[in-house]
Design goal:
Number of helices: 6
CATH topology: Jelly Rolls
Radius of gyration: 20 Å
Shape: globular
Strand content: 15-25%
Order of helices and strands: HEHEEHEEEHEEEEHEEEEH
CATH superfamily: q2cbj1_9rhob like domain
Number of strands: 14
Distance between the termini: 72 Å
Structural class: alpha+beta
Length: 267
């Protein structure tokens, strides 16, 4: 395991192959039909997510995997770590939206208030393929070695699921692309990808007919207390940005006809 952790620290990611068997992954997907849908893909009746699944049925067994826990213990040099969240991303066939280029650490004040960007080594992302992940259906893409780049700026956006996100600006992505190798994380059912919270990653939309469900799991070395003041400030900012920007769209739509340029004639 030490050699795997060494490679993870060098590359910023590692893929464990066939860590969960296909029958278990199919069981997890089937269990989703018993749960309340928390979010739908905008303008559709297709689920995007089912909320936190840490304590839900067979999903409780995901974090009991021995290889996963051995890796965490070796990485953090401690058994004092927690799994603070577990979600499903359902990038549905044909309409599953893209994910912008970003670092998870941009939102540390939301998912680990009390920690800072300098604490990035206290975190890890876990991504488990419940369906085959390919270029066609929008597999995760990441930049190997990008965790070694210093702090990167971010810009606030509204993503395809109508949520607030933080995106790496275009000019900074030029730099990342010039200095790091882009990896297409194509995965089979049951494969597990782990990566740092500073690793630059994103994904295309699902342009094909194939399902692309995955588990997204956070891991935190539990060394600091939850700071509710930081959390409230961060989440209020994100909600306000979303409301303000959407209101601008509403106001502009009401005050002008954005389609008028489609009906111009020249003889």
């Amino acid at each position: 395991m030490k050699d795997i952790v060494k490679q993870y620290n060098e590359d910023g990611y590692y893929i464990f192959r066939s860590l969960y068997d296909r029958d278990f992954c199919n069981l997890l997907k089937s269990y989703l039909f018993t749960l309340e849908v928390k979010r739908y893909i905008p303008f559709s009746n297709i689920p995007w997510g089912w909320g936190s699944l840490l304590d839900k049925g067979p999903f409780t067994r995901v974090t009991e995997n021995k290889t996963l826990n051995d890796f965490c213990k070796t990485l953090f040099g401690s058994e004092d770590y927690v799994f603070p969240n577990m979600m499903i991303n359902n990038k549905a066939p044909w309409i599953g939206p893209e994910a912008e280029w970003h670092r998870e650490i941009f939102n540390v004040d939301t998912y680990a208030p009390g920690y800072t960007e300098d604490d990035w080594e206290s975190f890890m992302r876990v991504y488990i393929a419940l369906d085959k992940q390919t270029l066609e259906n929008g597999c995760l893409r990441l930049y190997g070695g990008s965790h070694k780049i210093g702090k990167l700026p971010s810009e606030d956006i509204i993503d395809g699921n109508l949520g607030h996100k933080r995106r790496i600006p275009s000019e900074n992505m030029d730099m990342v692309n010039s200095n790091c190798t882009q990896i297409y994380a194509e995965m089979e059912v049951g494969d597990m990808l782990v990566f740092t919270d500073k690793t630059v990653h994103g994904s295309h939309s699902n342009k094909g007919p194939y399902e692309r469900k995955s588990i997204v799991l956070g891991v935190r070395h539990n060394t600091k207390e939850f700071d509710n003041e930081v959390y409230e400030k961060a989440t209020n900012y994100r909600r306000k940005f979303l409301v303000d920007e959407l209101q601008k769209v509403v106001d502009k739509t009401k005050s002008s006809n954005m389609y008028q340029d489609f009906n111009q004639e020249k003889k």
